[in-house]
């Protein structure tokens, strides 16, 4: 067995923790940039809690982060960080603001084109330190070295993966998620589920990581419906499952399902978690047919038995698993498949995957 388990982010978890984190900030820090989404910052309660305890710091707020942040948003935030001599970046919100915070932290200290760094150019300087405060349960970005950005010109979602962008610490306060409307709880909750499933099936998986994955899947299956009805204990557990699943993708990544979801988000504005939810049943069917990890696939399938199978579970969350019901046309699948087959995550999917297989998976959801 070979593995490397690296998680430099300090995790502070618990209800109310957002009200007591200022003592964790290094003494020599004066200038802080808050990177967030205006609605979320106010609705989640983070605004009051955070600003109250950062009274002694010089604060600048960049609250223009959109869903699936674009390069131009990152550039804008980077400019603000530089102009204000920012020393620490606080990413507050769902995956979008947390990812934006990581990007801004990296590009504020490293000159040049963002795209070059996305394509592997080495960061010559350390990024600014980042603190993440999630308001969705969710992406797990609070414990990952990833940031996902959208290239609007090329119509591509790209993952910036770099060990230097792990948050310095993250405050996971489930109370900040209590304001999520039902559909966001469900979309982001299924994102957690798919992170854990994909990391479990990834060829980079290892037994320690699998423990986190299976635990996370169980928690989501037992609690997502309740959480969507605003059951606070269930929402608490979901925040925990999200963190666990984040740890699993840090070490084993997501695989085919996530990269197949990207075109649905880019070309049809389907939220990230929902795109994964729609494709999950067809992805599992493909794994049943084609994966050489027979036992692991069986384990996943068996976890959905009490819900009548994967498809019934997703439909039970009021999510249609038919791409036709989202206005997507069958003629688009060729392009979606072309964009997907070139991604590196194909190589860590435990099956021989061809472009035709990908088209077939999309077709089976039509
Ligand atoms: P998000 O894009 O951050 O947020 C979606 C919407 O949720 C927001 O626009 C906001 O709506 C609402 N929202 C968030 N928190 C809320 C709260 N507490 N109360 C009320 N509304 C709330 O969603 P996400 O699913 O968390 O993040 C998706 C992004 O993360 C994608 O770009 C995805 O590719 C990326 N991602 C990153 C990683 C990673 O490891 N870095 C992993 C997976 C995915 P309003 O603004 O309209 O109010
Ligand atoms: Fe995701």
Describe this structure in words.
This protein is 48% helix and 11% strand. It has 366 residues and is an alpha/beta fold. The model has no long low-confidence stretch (mean pLDDT 97). The protein has 14 helices and 8 strands. Fe (iii) ion binds at residues 139, 191, 195, 258, 272. Residues 37, 39-40, 43-44, 67-68, 93-96, 99, 135-136, 138-141, 144, 146-148, 176-177, 179-180, 184, 188, 191, 272-273 line the site of NADP nicotinamide-adenine-dinucleotide phosphate.
Q: What pattern of helices and strands is seen along the backbone?
A: EEHHEHEHHEEEEHHHHHHHHH
Number of helices: 14
Shape: globular
The tally of beta strands, per DSSP, is 8
Strand content: 5-15%
Q: Fraction of residues in helices?
A: 40-55%
Strand order of the largest sheet: 1-8-5-4-2-3
Kindly provide the radius of gyration, computed on alpha-carbon positions and rounded to a whole number of angstroms. Answer: 20 Å
N→C terminal distance:
41 Å
Task: Give a short account of the largest sheet.
Answer: 6 strands, parallel
Task: Please provide a brief summary of the model.
48% of the residues lie in helices and 11% in strands. With 366 residues, it is an alpha/beta fold. A hairpin with a 4-residue loop joins strand 6 and strand 7.
